[in-house]
Specification:
Blueprint lengths: L12 H6 L6 E5 L3 H7 L5 E4 L3 H4 L11 H13 L5 E5 L9 H15 L3 E3 L7 H9 L4 E6 L5 H4 L9 H17 L3 E5 L3 H10 L4 E4 L7 E4 L1 H4 L17 H17 L20
Parallel strand pairs: 1-2, 1-8, 2-3, 3-4, 4-5, 5-6, 6-7, 7-8
The structure holds 3-methyl-2-oxobutanoic acid (KIV).
GO molecular function: 3-methyl-2-oxobutanoate hydroxymethyltransferase activity; magnesium ion binding; methyltransferase activity
Subunit structure: Homodecamer; pentamer of dimers.
Catalytic activity: (6R)-5,10-methylene-5,6,7,8-tetrahydrofolate + 3-methyl-2-oxobutanoate + H2O = 2-dehydropantoate + (6S)-5,6,7,8-tetrahydrofolate
Length: 279
């Protein structure tokens, strides 16, 4: 049963920023109303990640996400949450061209969903975009390290920070994102020591995924965390439940009962004598 939705005030980006070196920040992705309802009481931040393109829509990469898709899922998560800080991902193609393009897209996301902040991938290459969005009063979460939107360019999902050159680039990127005004930074798929050192260097909270337990917070993709992912599950995921089996078993029992006419039973139909009109 989903808890009743009640919160005096939502957690905001400034609250998240103040949690630097404090109690770890709990983040999960969410894409739908019911899942947002179930998670809202337990997390500090819900990310409507562009991973929705893969997780819910079956695309091979996050490049299948569009601004319209992100807005529709952002609206659903806002309807299903009252307490968590909701951040919506800017999909590939919606911000890279210029600061003006990035700001126009971020404005659409905020205006059409009512979410608290946007997230975009990249370091020094998108610092101008981050600065423009922040200057317009829209909080931004950064995302460096393994950047799923660049996976085709990178030739696969590769762990970052293994070479001295790449490590230096990650430090430079993290510092550029902070300087541009982001309130927090996702660090994905890096060597552990790099995420630990970035967390030490930066004054904004770092949110790790496949990064380090030293990060100021952690995030996982909800379907991975509850064991619903049917394709490859990354090494950094811990499954806290195994819902694949639960769903598949329920479907098998339902199918058997429909075929044997055991379902619907007397409790699931409306006999003409019951007088009850409510479904
Ligand atoms: O899109 C997403 O779900 C993300 C998280 C994995 C951080 O960016």
């Amino acid at each position: 049963m989903a808890p009743e939705m009640s919160a005096d005030v939502r957690i905001g980006p400034d609250d998240i920023r103040r949690r630097k070196r404090g109690v770890p920040i709990v983040c999960l992705t969410a894409y739908t109303y019911p899942v947002a309802r179930l998670l809202d009481d337990h997390v500090d931040l819900l990310l409507v990640g562009d991973s929705v393109a893969m997780v819910l829509h079956g695309h091979k990469t996050t490049l299948g996400a569009s601004l319209e898709m992100m807005i529709a899922h952002g609206q659903a998560v806002m309807r299903g949450s009252a307490k968590a800080c909701v951040v919506v991902d800017m999909p590939a193609g919606s911000y890279e061209t210029s600061a003006a393009q990035a700001l126009a897209s971020a404005r659409r996301v905020i205006d059409e969903t009512g979410c608290q902040a946007v997230k975009l991938e990249g370091g020094i290459d998108v610092a101008e975009q981050i600065a423009a969005i922040v200057a317009a009063g829209i909080p931004v979460m950064g995302h460096i390290g393994l950047q799923p939107q660049s996976v085709e360019k990178d030739g696969g999902y590769k762990i970052k920070g293994r070479t001295e050159e790449n490590m230096v680039a990650l430090f430079r990127d993290g510092e550029a994102v902070e300087k541009a005004g982001a309130f927090s930074l996702v660090i994905e798929g890096t060597v552990e020591t790099v995420a630990t050192e970035l967390t030490r260097r930066l004054s904004i909270p770092t949110i790790g995924i496949g990064a380090s337990a030293d990060c100021d917070g952690q995030i996982l993709v909800i379907d991975d965390m509850v064991g619903l992912t049917v394709d490859r599950v990354p090494k950094f995921v811990k499954e806290y439940a195994e819902l694949r089996g639960v769903v598949s078993d329920a479907a098998a029992r339902y199918a058997a009962e429909v075929r044997s006419r055991a379902f619907p039973g007397p409790d699931h139909v409306f006999p003409s004598t019951s007088g009850k009109d409510k479904a």
